[in-house]
Backbone:
C-alpha cells in the first residue's frame, strides 16, 4: 500500500505524522514499512531518524535505475537505510532532480518490496507532490485549527481532488487556552469539511503532545515513539484508530476477529483461575 502525507503549508507536523504512522503500521501488522522523504528542501526524515550524515535515498535509486539495476531487492538494499527492525527510510534527493517518471518508478518498485510505503511530500502544491498524490492509494492531509489552513486544504487545492481516498488529521489540537474555549473546535472543523464532501469518518484529531517536544531531543524521536506507544499514552490510541481505519477501508483488514480472540483469551485465563481456586 502506497500512502502520501501532505499538508497545505509547512510547519503543521506532517513529517512527525508520517513517522508515527509508519511506526503504527509496523506495530499493528508486523510488516515492513518504508518511509520516503520527497521534501528536497528540508529533508527532515533523516534529521529525525538518522544519527549519520551519510544516508541513502532517492539520488541513489535514480542512479541505480539509470544504469540498469532491475532487481527490486538489490535496489532498495542499496538505496535505503534501516532505522528499526520494521522501518526503512529513503532520504530525499540532493543532487538529482526527479520528475513524474522517477516518482512512478519509485512507487512501483517500493510497493513490490514493502507492505506499506509512506511518502512525506512537500507541503502545498507542486508538480512532484501532485504526481505523488495521484499515485497514492491513501492521501493523509495534516491540518491545524486555522480557518486559512482549512481553506487552503479544500478550496481549489490539489488535495481536495482526492476526497475519496483522503484522510484529514487535525494536529496539535487543543480544546481551550487559559480556560477559554477555542472557537474553531473539532465539531465545527468536521462540519466545515463535511460541506466540502468529506465524510466525518475520515476526519481525526491528535491532541497537542507536550511530552513529544520534551522527549525527542538528540534525534531520539523513533525511540520515543516505540517506547511510549501504549494505548494509555497521549495520542497513541488515536494514531491506532487512524491506522485501523486506513487498513479497514483501503486494505480490507478487519480487527474484529482479533478483538474477539483477545477477549476469548482473557476469558479462558479467568476460567482457568476460577477452576484452580475451586470456584464455579
Residues:
Amino acid at each position: 500500500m502506497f500512502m502520501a502525507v501532505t499538508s497545505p503549508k509547512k510547519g503543521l507536523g506532517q513529517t512527525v505524522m508520517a513517522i508515527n504512522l509508519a511506526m503504527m503500521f509496523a506495530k499493528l501488522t508486523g510488516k515492513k514499512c518504508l518511509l520516503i522523504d520527497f521534501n528536497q528542501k528540508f529533508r527532515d526524515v533523516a534529521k529525525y531518524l538518522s544519527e549519520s550524515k551519510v544516508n541513502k535515498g532517492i539520488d541513489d535509486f535514480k542512479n541505480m535505475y539509470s544504469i540498469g539495476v532491475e532487481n527490486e531487492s538489490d535496489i532498495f538494499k542499496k538505496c535505503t537505510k534501516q532505522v528499526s527492525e520494521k522501518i526503512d527510510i529513503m532520504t530525499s534527493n540532493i543532487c538529482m532532480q526527479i520528475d513524474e517518471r522517477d516518482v512512478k518508478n519509485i512507487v512501483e518498485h517500493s510497493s513490490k518490496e514493502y507492505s506499506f510505503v509512506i511518502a512525506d511530500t512537500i507541503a502545498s502544491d507542486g508538480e512532484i507532490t501532485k504526481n505523488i498524490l495521484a499515485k497514492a492509494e491513501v492521501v493523509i492531509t495534516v491540518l491545524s485549527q486555522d480557518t486559512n489552513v482549512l481553506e487552503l486544504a479544500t478550496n481549489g487545492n490539489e488535495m481536495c481532488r482526492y476526497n475519496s481516498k483522503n484522510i484529514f488529521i487535525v494536529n496539535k489540537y487543543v480544546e481551550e487556552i487559559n480556560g477559554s474555549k477555542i472557537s474553531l473546535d473539532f465539531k465545527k472543523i468536521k462540519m466545515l469539511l463535511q460541506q466540502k464532501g468529506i465524510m466525518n469518518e475520515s476526519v481525526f484529531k491528535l491532541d497537542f503532545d507536550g511530552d513529544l517536544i520534551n522527549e525527542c531531543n538528540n534525534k531520539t524521536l523513533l525511540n520515543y515513539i516505540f517506547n511510549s506507544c501504549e494505548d494509555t499514552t497521549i495520542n497513541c490510541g488515536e494514531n491506532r484508530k487512524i491506522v485501523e481505519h486506513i487498513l479497514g477501508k483501503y486494505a480490507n483488514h478487519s480487527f474484529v476477529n482479533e478483538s474477539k480472540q483477545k477477549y476469548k483469551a482473557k476469558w479462558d485465563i479467568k476460567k482457568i483461575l476460577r477452576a484452580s481456586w475451586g470456584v464455579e
In short: The first helix runs from residue 14 to 29.
